[in-house]
């Protein structure tokens, strides 16, 4: 009958514990033994040999790393025997075990990172839960580049909590500094592993942007985060507009539609809450929509055009079309505009026609003309009064 033999690797008996902790504790234990051995050897050499404390330490350390300069050597039997013991036990055995465990730890850490099972010590980061069904790599890459172009977010860490990428993140994502953890947002342990409590922002993507039933999974995640008092950090994607009220009721800060071709909308909703309402409205005709007007522009500044359209209730000027058919956004406010069209954010109900826009600009031209006449008249009166006073 065979006896129970001790396994080659003690960690096989501790499979319920994290491997990294087992390896680190073993390395610490070996260092402790080595430190005790060196302290005893230094003390012994200092006592039995004709050497100072520093010389005893120097000789012990050169013996440990097998350098063997020969400038100091034990002369007593006790010193020589203890040095042999240090060479075989310390240099050959303990150091080899320490180096071996360190290499094993590095390989273990690398494998855990690649498979998304390494727990990072993160804080003030962005957590993204779930991965788009298609084009996830492109979405995350564009999201990262956009968010890091925002002042204050240049170096923000980004963590993806997903069951995708079991073999590791694609190089274009890992090279961009993104990391991932293999898990689900419905798992409290996974939320703890990505340090959701210390995150600056938490984004919950719809599991399937075309399936309304995915809102149920999103709601479950949002509810868990809300119970942890993290609702004000959360931005969620909601497929059905009818479900938006449910997310708002649990304290979610921002709710947007899945618009995967424009991750910039998600970026704006995260860094500038509220702007997603304006951006979403541009994609439908329920309230406002951008409208193009073919109209000649040649004698008004951009500030004049914006003021004219607002004063007459037309809408908000977004851009103009120049003579080369290029759309110019955010032109200088005090320079005269030369172009042949305007893009205006107008009401979807009773959208103004081009004649109303022309009339608004004409009225504003007349207003500017009268204002200049009045201003010149005031200047002339002031000059006349000053001349009279001088005489």
CATH class of the largest domain: Alpha Beta
Quaternary: single chain
Mean of residue pLDDT values: 85
Q: What is the percentage of strand-forming residues? A: 5-15%
Q: Can you name the CATH architecture of the largest domain? A: 3-Layer(aba) Sandwich
CATH topology of the largest domain: Rossmann fold
What does the radius of gyration come to? 36 Å
Helix content: 40-55%
Give the number of DSSP strands: 12
Shape: elongated
Question: How many structural domains are formed by the residues?
Answer: 3
From N to C, what is the helix and strand string? HHHEHEHEHEHEHEHHEEHEEEEH
Largest sheet: 6 strands, parallel
Parts with pLDDT < 50 across at least 5 consecutive residues:
6-17
Question: Count of DSSP helices?
Answer: 12
Give the strand line-up of the largest sheet. Answer: 3-2-1-4-5-6
Ends distance? 131 Å
Domain Potassium channel: 35-98
Protein name: Potassium channel family protein
Keywords: Ion channel, Ion transport, Membrane, Transmembrane, Transmembrane helix, Transport
Transmembrane segments: 30-48, 77-103
Please tell me about this protein's structure.
- Residues 6-17 have low confidence and may be disordered.
- The protein is elongated and about 115 Å long.
- The longest helix is centred in the first third of the chain and has 38 residues, at 77-114.
- Helices cover 47% and strands 14% of the residues.
- It has 3 domains: 15-114, Orthogonal Bundle (Helix Hairpins), CATH 1.10.287; 126-281, NAD(P)-binding Rossmann-like Domain (Rossmann fold); 288-375, Alpha-Beta Plaits, CATH 3.30.70.
- It is α/β, with parallel strands linked by helices and 391 residues long.
- The strands form 3 sheets. It has a 6-stranded parallel sheet, sandwiched between helices. A 4-stranded antiparallel sheet has the order 7-12-9-10, covered by helices on one side.
- The protein is built from 12 helices and 12 strands.
